[in-house]
Design goal:
Shape: globular
Number of strands: 15
Number of domains: 1
Radius of gyration: 17 Å
Strand order of the largest sheet: 8-7-9-14-15
Order of helices and strands: HHEEEEEHHEEEEEEEEEE
Number of helices: 4
Structural class: alpha+beta
CATH superfamily: Creatinase/methionine aminopeptidase superfamily
CATH topology: Creatine Amidinohydrolase
Distance between the termini: 30 Å
CATH architecture: Alpha-Beta Complex
């Protein structure tokens, strides 16, 4: 699979799917309360996506069984919703992919359950989200993939956290996963040249402890090896003449 440069019409259609991603992540926030199960959250997301004429991009993808990924605490990504119930202090990562009108968009956000958030957890969330936007800022014509990767890595490590190296962002749009891979670590001015019409999912996955991860017995869920918390934020963006345009927004 090569690099797909998108037409203006294709970008508009990716943006339509992206709007549903953003709306879903905002809508589900009202349901993130203690005693709500992950399966309930999945059903709410799936029904909301369908109500807005989209389809889950994840369900059935390479055998993935669920409509959204929901990952708790030390689970980094690819969590399969089950009957576990939320409790105060949980860190909840919700990753939403939507297919609509032949195009895909992908986005994720990390939420905290409760009001009295531990300062270390709050810092983890803040730095991860900041790293996402620094990566997006670097996604412009004249730069390379390594400029995105380096911007994310430097910000994360400067604050004492680590980036997951086994996983990264990716091209998205005509397929759920396209080339190029967008690592969350790297060196400036290395890698593929960024071009107008590229659409990328940029997604820092940041661990409070070490970067090492393992895969759970379900062969999907990625977990920090040291079992310390992890955060994940993601946007789908398009590279334009004037910089990156975020497509996963309302």
């Amino acid at each position: 699979m090569g690099i797909y440069i998108k037409s203006e019409n294709e970008i508009l259609r990716i943006k339509e799917a992206g709007r549903i991603v953003a709306m879903t992540l905002r809508y589900i926030e009202d349901f993130l309360k203690p005693e709500v199960s992950l399966l309930e959250l999945e059903t709410i997301c799936d029904e909301f996506i369908r109500k807005h004429n989209g389809v889950s991009a994840f369900k059935g993808y390479r055998g993935f069984p669920s409509a959204v990924c929901i990952s708790l605490n030390e689970e980094v990504v690819h969590g399969i919703p089950d009957d576990r119930k939320l409790k105060i202090g949980d860190l909840v990562k919700i990753d939403v992919g939507v297919f609509k009108n032949g195009c895909y968009a992908d986005g994720a956000k990390t939420f905290y359950i409760g009001n009295n958030i531990d300062p270390k957890i709050k810092k983890l969330l803040t730095i991860t989200e900041e790293a996402l936007y620094l990566g997006i800022k670097a996604a412009k014509i004249g730069n390379r993939i390594g400029d995105i990767s380096s911007a994310i890595q430097k910000h994360v490590e400067k604050h004492g956290f680590s980036v997951v190296r086994e996983l990264g962002g990716h091209g998205v749009g005509l397929f759920l996963h396209e080339e190029p891979i967008v690592p969350n670590f790297g060196k400036p001015k290395e890698g593929l040249d960024l071009q107008k019409g590229m659409t990328l999912a940029i997604e820092p996955m940041v661990n409070m402890g070490k970067p090492d991860v393992v895969t759970a017995k379900n062969n999907w869920t990625v977990i920090t090896k040291d079992r310390l918390p992890s955060a994940h934020f993601e946007h789908t963006i398009a590279i334009t003449e004037t910089g990156a345009e975020i497509l996963t927004k309302e």
